[in-house]
Design goal:
This protein has about 375 residues and is of the alpha/beta class. Helices cover about 65% and strands about 10% of the residues. The protein is built from 15 helices and five strands. Strands 2-1-3-4-5 form a five-stranded mixed β-sheet. α6 (about 125-145) links the parallel β4 and β5 (about 155-165). α14 packs antiparallel against α15. It is elongated, with a radius of gyration of 26 Å.
Length: about 375
């Protein structure tokens, strides 16, 4: 018993001295509790809705107001174009577009048949289902309030719902592009997270520094091979996802390849930054997994809509590269979105890439200095 107690005390001593073990024991559970507690919100609210009101009457405006008052929907930051209202859907700036044709007010007051048009973005399956349910409920409530005389029949107004980009609402079409984003980020960061740490462990970093090259040239030289490897890895994952899950691909292949190049370079930059900050390969890999996997799954919009999260988590989500590439890969594969629609997402990825690379160079210079 004395020997067992001695071994237990010794093991506890090692655990308390090991920073990595303490990180897994205390930080990871707290981080997971925080993220799961705040980010998991199955109540889908604050859905961006675009409205094209061609009726322009008190009744049509009252219907629109009833949508805003429900707190399920909020108006988009841009007005839908009359000739192409679905443009907001392609850019993921709206989850649905409500089109009210002329004659709505007359139909309501005279109890005539009438169809409202609702175009829904089907690339986000759970949100599309919520839009269908909420819109039918709000329209029924609005029409009941319009029954002026006691015993009057319900006006014959219905919503013609048209689900775009994923008409069958297949969950695989929603999740597979997201999985591609997470795998690419995680693998790319892991690849480069051990590069500098390996040189430190093997003691070859000093030899490398004696060569007539600058720290920036060393980092770029180490980064370039991994860009090629990660890019080919991304091609493999995309092809596998396409063949295995039959995810539609309606956009530009070359545009997606260009965006993938920016994305993997950003992810590799995260790995390089980690590698300059930690002393061992094992610790670098643990950090890479911790920093990339959990935030990407919880905060990128892969499972839970970012706009339903608390404001602080929404801010953090903008620092996660997968947030942008997830919109890009879904936009290109499912919606056929072009460069003009996806330029803001690509711009944010480029900014993150420059920031991570700059931090890595500064960190590397200070560590070797």
């Amino acid at each position: 018993m004395h020997k067992i107690r001695f071994i237990a005390q010794k093991e506890m001593y090692h655990i308390l001295r090991d920073f990595r073990s303490l990180l897994i024991i205390f930080v990871m559970p707290l981080m997971m509790t925080f993220l799961y507690g705040y980010a998991i919100n199955m109540d889908i609210e604050h859905i961006p809705l675009g409205v094209v009101d061609r009726d322009q009457t008190a009744d049509s405006r009252a219907l629109v107001e009833s949508f805003w008052a429900s707190h399920y929907f909020f108006p988009t930051d841009a007005v839908p174009e009359l000739d192409d209202p679905a443009k907001l859907l392609r850019g993921s700036r709206a989850a649905a577009i409500l089109v009210i044709r002329p004659g709505f007010s007359e139909a309501v007051r005279n109890n005539q048949p009438f169809e409202l048009e609702l175009q829904i973005d089907g690339s986000e399956v759970s949100q599309a289902g919520a839009v269908v349910g909420y819109s039918n409920s709000l329209l029924s409530q609005f029409l009941r309030e319009k029954m002026l005389a006691p015993g009057a029949s319900m006006p014959g107004v219905t919503i013609s719902q048209r689900v775009l980009y994923n008409p069958d609402l297949k969950s695989s079409h929603f999740f597979v592009p997201g999985i591609v984003s997470i795998i690419l980020l995680m693998i790319s960061a892991l690849l480069t997270s051990i590069t500098i740490a390996r040189e430190k462990e093997t003691g070859t970093l000093e030899q490398l520094l004696t060569a007539p090259v600058s720290p920036l040239q060393i980092l770029l030289g180490k980064l370039l091979p991994y860009i090629v490897i990660a890019f080919l890895d991304g091609l493999l994952v995309l092809a596998f996802a396409k063949i295995l899950f039959s995810v539609p691909f309606v956009g530009s292949f070359w545009l997606l390849m260009g965006m993938e190049m920016i994305y993997v370079t950003t992810a590799l930059s995260i790995g390089i930054l980690i590698s300059t900050a930690v002393p061992t390969q094992q610790l670098a890999m643990q950090f890479a997994l911790l920093i990339t996997m959990l935030p990407s799954i919880m905060l990128s919009g892969f499972i839970f809509a970012v706009k339903n999260m608390p404001i602080p988590l929404q801010v953090v989500s903008h620092l996660v590269p997968a947030t942008y590439f997830l919109n890009i890969v879904r936009g290109i594969m499912l919606k056929g979105a072009g460069i003009t629609v996806l330029a803001p997402q690509a711009g944010f990825l480029l900014i993150l890439m420059v920031v991570f690379l700059t931090l890595a160079v500064k960190r590397f210079k200070s560590s070797v200095g």
